[in-house]
Metallo-beta-lactamase domain-containing protein
Amino acid sequence: MPKFRYEAGEGVFYKVDDFSGDADIFFLTHIHNDHLGGLHDSWCRGRICCSKQTLSLLKTKFKGLSSSNFEIVEMNRSHIIRINSKVALSIVAINANHTPGSVMFHVSGGFGNRLHSGDFRYDPKIHTTENFPCLGRVDELYLDTTLFHPSWSFSLTKEQSCEIIVNIIRDFGLDREIHLVLDYFGQESIIKAIYKAFEEKIFLNLDANLNAQTRHVWTAWSRSSHLKHALTTSKDCSTRFHACSTRRPRPNSN
């Protein structure tokens, strides 16, 4: 992510999805690795503003982080965060429709109104001024444009994409073992759709030689109250569905 410091007046600066260098407050939009630059177990540069679900996922990755370093924001509710005696920021978290707990940040102050999108998936049913009135008040837009190109098409909804995956599995044959590449936060809807369609759990082999990022994702999923019903870590569980990863584990240094 670009390493910007945003000025908020009176010598106050904040950063979004970048935890290197100094700032008066930091914002984290979601849990993907490319938005965690500079963050580590013993990080203590200041306060981090994020959603409750993002913090929960983050603490499975960085176990040394203290909850006291975090400002939790609820969706579509104005939060006043005082930086010092002269500067306070008004923060609204907007559903980014990307990963569990992912948000866009609407930040207001003496500089006006700024919207920091982070990664998001636009949905005309979600991202309306009726649902989020602050979207009608944007003076500066900081937009993630990673996939902002005509060659990338996202015409299918998540529901339609999941339906296609389920149909492919049916066509492949119900008597075969199915290996699914599931190793990123944001694939939770696929897990739920497969369980709903076939009423079989997906096996996560936490004893395998996993890449650290895959282990983080699978561990968090196995503990999630929203996914426990659809997953198993038990080798004794009879299921045709097995999660796998495209990420290579680091070579053993011994």
